[in-house]
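Sequence, please.
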């Protein structure tokens, strides 16, 4: 199967059929250090899922960019609910991405960081058993001590808050470990918390050309920030009727 064609239509001048290196360059432009990027897919009528899963909205173009964004980061950050619902396994990238990461002085695979207040995670899961890099679990003071000890056998367990995970502490903790390029893949409640804390630097949004209706959730949920956070459109990529948007926080 031939690789799906992706064109850049903004900023001008437009470019047709751009390759992976050019796409990665487009997503890297202007990114600071540290930097927290969030990636989601949504239908054109605002649904974040189809039959309860975001994967149902994704297409070949979204998969291609999804993989490239993992290539660019130090750590992939995901809420435990999304990990369970979407069936995550160990955090691995393909051989092409491994080579590109090594050439950039990075580890072959990004670190997997999972946010879980309840610690409803199985230490025997392939997420931990097959991990090429030791995962991180971010939790709260209220989580069970015995469960923390069990998970500490297979991951670094980090407490970042008393009753709730505090996003600013979460980000600071990852940066202290040298994980400065943070790539968040959801879910909506984690994204909402990150927005409310003002720590989101970038949103990458794939707009799937479908109308879903129903009761699907938005890409963010939970508490709102004191004031709306202004974002600037950095680029627009197009693959047939799918749009791949990149927004960065206004300075």
């Amino acid at each position: 199967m031939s690789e799906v064609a992706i064109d850049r239509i903004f900023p001008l001048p437009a470019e047709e059929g751009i390759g992976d290196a050019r796409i990665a360059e487009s997503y890297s432009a202007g990114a600071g250090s540290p930097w927290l990027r969030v990636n989601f897919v949504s239908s054109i009528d605002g649904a974040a899922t189809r039959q309860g899963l975001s994967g149902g909205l994704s297409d070949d173009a979204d998969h291609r960019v999804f993989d490239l964004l993992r290539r660019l980061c130090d750590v992939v950050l995901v809420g435990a609910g999304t990990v369970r619902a979407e069936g995550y396994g160990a955090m691995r990238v393909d051989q092409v991405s491994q080579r590109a990461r090594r050439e950039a002085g990075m580890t072959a695979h990004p670190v997997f960081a999972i946010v879980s207040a309840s610690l409803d995670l199985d230490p025997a899961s392939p997420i931990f058993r097959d991990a090429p890099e030791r995962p991180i679990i971010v939790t709260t003071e209220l989580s069970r001590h015995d469960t923390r000890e069990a998970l500490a056998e297979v991951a670094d367990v980090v407490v970042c808050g008393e009753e709730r995970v505090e996003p600013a502490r979460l980000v600071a903790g990852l940066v202290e470990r040298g994980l400065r390029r943070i790539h968040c893949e959801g879910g909506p409640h984690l994204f909402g918390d990150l927005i409310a804390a003002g720590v989101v630097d970038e949103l990458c949004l794939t707009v799937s050309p479908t109308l879903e209706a129903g009761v699907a959730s938005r890409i963010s949920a939970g508490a709102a920030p004191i004031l709306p956070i202004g974002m600037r459109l950095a680029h627009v990529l197009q693959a047939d009727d799918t749009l791949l948007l990149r927004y960065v926080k206004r300075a």
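The chain has one domain: 7-249.
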